[in-house]
Amino acid sequence: MKKLNVGMIGGGFMGKAHSLAYAGMPMFFWPAPAIPHRHTVVDVNEGLAKDAAARLGFDNYATDWRDVVNNPEIDVIDIVTPNNTHAEIAIAAAKAGKHIICEKPLALGAEQAKEMLEAVKAAGVKHAVAFNYRRTPAVALAKKYIEEGRIGKVLSFRGTYLQDWSADPNSPLSWRFQKKIAGSGALGDIGTHVVDYARYLVGEITDINAITKTWIPERPIQTGGIDKLGTVKAGGDDVPKAAVDVDDEFITMVKFDNGAIGTIEATRNAHGRNNFLTFEIHGEKGSLYFNYERRDELQVCFADDPSDAKGFRTVYTGPATPYGEGLWPIPALGIGYGETKIIETYDFFKAISEGTEFSPNFNDGYQIELIADAILESAEKGQWVNLEKTAAAVK
Length: 395
Fold this sequence. Notes:
The protein is an alpha/beta fold. It has two domains: 3-130, Rossmann fold; 134-358 and 370-376, 2-Layer Sandwich (Dihydrodipicolinate Reductase, domain 2). Helix content is 33%, strand content 24%. The protein has helices spanning 13-28, 46-56, 65-69, 86-95, 110-123, 137-147, 179-182, 186-201, 337-354, 362-381, 387-392; strands spanning 3-9, 35-42, 60-62, 76-79, 99-102, 127-129, 154-162, 205-213, 218-220, 241-243, 249-256, 261-267, 276-283, 286-291, 297-302, 313-316, 385-386. It has a nine-stranded mixed sheet with strand order 16-15-14-13-7-12-11-8-17. The protein has a six-stranded parallel sheet with strand order 3-2-1-4-5-6, with helices on both faces. Helix 4 (86-95) packs parallel to helix 5. It is globular and about 65 Å long.
């Protein structure tokens, strides 16, 4: 069984999730398409890098990502760093002939994402963007129902991603609140997951009409330690503040090329919401509803149900549903965030081994960046924005 050596750039929260997936994938999906071998991990200094290697199970560590990208022993480069570093690392990795998996969002905007897409296409390497939420079995089941025509022609999509972790105005000015590093706020951080759902389940988006808001215009400058999520904590009560230049919340209407309509919204300022990632899809013959906080469940309603039994009912994912053969043997036994990363790793390594295309890939990442750019443009101009025009403006 082929072994593929992984060089992972970044050892924080997402590094932990990806490392778990590399270790667990062959246990869940056996025989594995290839064995992920945790070869080298990179972090910003020797102390952090050495600790990451010991903690995440890598044989080696480094402090310069270029050393790993140019190492002939490395087969796969895994990018789990802040958004502003994705393009440089990915383009260099492509030129070095490495397969690449990159955390979302792919880039700071569509122009940068296009450069990344052109680099991987020129190199002929496999490429993936880590929108792992679409690997949740209930979401894949919704996709199956739609493709089978179980709900008929899709009429509308409603998607949300609501969190509350930044609702506290005293939470620090991490890189996620700085445009030069993050590109955007709630839009890029969590809203792109909903955009990925919309494209995956319904189809391409053609037009956007959006509103964005920044509810907390300044935050304390970071001076404290690092918490378990990798966020630097502010220190003291008299910490100076600096401006937030990204969105805290957005709401957008969308039109799809197949005639469907919809809404997408995301916020990190919704008290009481932890990871409220949802979609509701209405079709001519039925409806589907999913809430990631109840990730083993898909709510379904079919128009041809008898009148005395009509309404939403729960389908619990398990062995009979997508990816069920590799996960737990009892429906509703429960999966977690880690399992979605394991499934993602399985599909990506299968694509590498079999020479097939993985999705979502850098082309999907580029399309999502076009949509994100259009959302920001629409909010700024206060009008509908056409995606074809947005794409035509990208250099």
